[in-house]
Amino acid sequence: MLQIKNLHAGVENKEILKGVNLEVKAGEIHAIMGPNGSGKSTLSAVISGNENFEVSQGSVTFLNEDISELDPEERAHKGVFLSFQYPIEIPGVSVTNFIKTAINETRKAKDLGDMPASEMLKLIKSKADLLEIDRKFLSRSLNEGFSGGEKKRNEIFQMAMLDPKLAILDETDSGLDIDALKIVANGVNKLKSKDNAVIIITHYQRLLDYIVPDFVHVLIDGKIVKSGTKELAYELEEKGYDWIKEELV
Amino acid sequence: MSLKSKLVSSYLAFDDHLDDNSPIHDIRKKAIDTFEEKGFPTKKEEDWKYTSLNAIINKDYSISSKGDKEIKYEKVREYFLHDIDSYKVVFIDGVFSSFLSETSHDGLDVCLLSSVLSKEKYKAIIEAYYNKIASKDSITSLNTAFAKEGAYINIPNNKEVDKPIEIINFSTGNETALMMQPRNLIIVGENAHVQIIERHQSLSDNAVFTNSVTEIFAEKRAYLDFYKIQNDKENASLIDNTFIHQEQNTNCNVHTFSLGGKITRNNLNFSQNGEHCDSTLKGVTILKDKQHVDHNTLVNHISPNCESHQDYKGLYADSSTGVFNGRVIVEKEAQKINAFQQNNNILIDDNATVNAKPQLEIFADDVKCSHGCTIGQFDEDALFYLRSRGIGLKEAQALLMYAFANTVLETVKIPELKRRINNLIAEKIGVNIGFDI
N or C end of chain A, less CB within 10 A? Predict the structure, then answer.
């Protein structure tokens, strides 16, 4: 589904990703772990098309198509979704209206008409139930005054509504208490199928207790230096990252 | 001949034609003298530093119209809020149109200033209110000298007006260039409640210059919502001079939507003459091409325990220019004042300009005054967030504009008006994002 080859990217002459290789197949869950500043969030931003980062070398292929030159919205239309570490507040635009706009804009790009209102309402209701989201929450302004947990739950709600092929969860576990973490993880697990894939970006192994990855990769200084199975995450939790750095030397 | 000379020399003939009582005549004579002495304001004056009238006053305007023009309702229907659910005072080229209007003397007065100026029974009203709070500067004096028509609204005590009142000034383009000076007098009685919408609308591409004066008196515990819709054609300019006098426990709100026109200058003045007054001044400005809007606000806190809130949002594209000059005066006796002023601007293009100048003059020592002013571009992170959800760049910008303007839109209390303004804004931004906010 996603192939990243020798990806170099950064901001204003500062290279952050220094040759990342990664392949994600449909039906898989990958976790990318690494210390602060290793390039984890940059990787997620580059995959989803953030123009603040410049790709200097390498390629990002999604569903057999090179997407490196596509706008963020075009990538979204193809099925890439990024759950933000810091979702943006949009006062005056309700959660419901926002998600309606996002869905209908995506449908427009595919030459489909607007989703019928009744169908939209049904979809919103079922996905809100899945994430135990209160009806009142949906009429609030997007992310405005939301707690950290509400913001993250709202991100996963959007993911549920947009039904992406590839979902990247950037630090979704940060700022979540254990109950919210379980709800979010449960939602992601229910949305998971053999046809889609998930990349989880995290510092800690905690979330991986609830969303079990097929592969764990360690990103240090802009490169994936070690890959393994979920046991690697436990090892990292226990021993930190220094032993890997030492191995590299 | 310059416009000033033309105005001054036509004054005598103009005055001769009018048959009104002598106090008005004296007021008018004094006003033309003031204008003759001071002339049109220039950029040398501090208050007009960022707005030049040269591009307006160099034209040869007709200063009165023949006034025989009628307009079919269907042609102007879009400019009205409702077919039936509003009172309407409509002028065409400065002349009252009984056909398009719906006035009333039934439990309230919604009618014409001309009849009030000329009829004996209104003499006391004129003596008590007319030209009492309008400033004596040159531009307001010019209006006072030539004022003969406009809306007269008088809401008796304890009356809650059942539907909004619309004041609309159409110009037809019958004259190549037309100057109009409408004059409105509005009295909101004790404990009365009213919503007013004012609009100036040119129907052709010919030049129009409107110098409008509105005096508003809010008696004790009165409540006023006033909405100004400024979405005129590219050759239409407006100087709006509005003066609001608040007695104790009044609540007066003015929303100004500046979405078009060549040069628009809003002189909006509030004075609080009793305790527990609340004044709200809000505006959304969305400009493009070479349009220019200048918001010149003044809130004069004369009495203690009052509040004022100012919130102006501006979005400037192309080479458009904006000015926000917000002045707050807190007099020595006016303790426990809470005055808040906010002015935020987004420059969409590199050639757009905004000049912002907050002025706080505080002579009391126990007050809470704050002001904030920002000029910036779109938040890149916010744009990326929206785009990553499949929303295109233009639509994402539109959403952010809505969000930006929302603090002003959310206090529009007439749902149909709010819907219209949302549509207007969507039209200005050039998107149809297919949802109502």
Answer: C
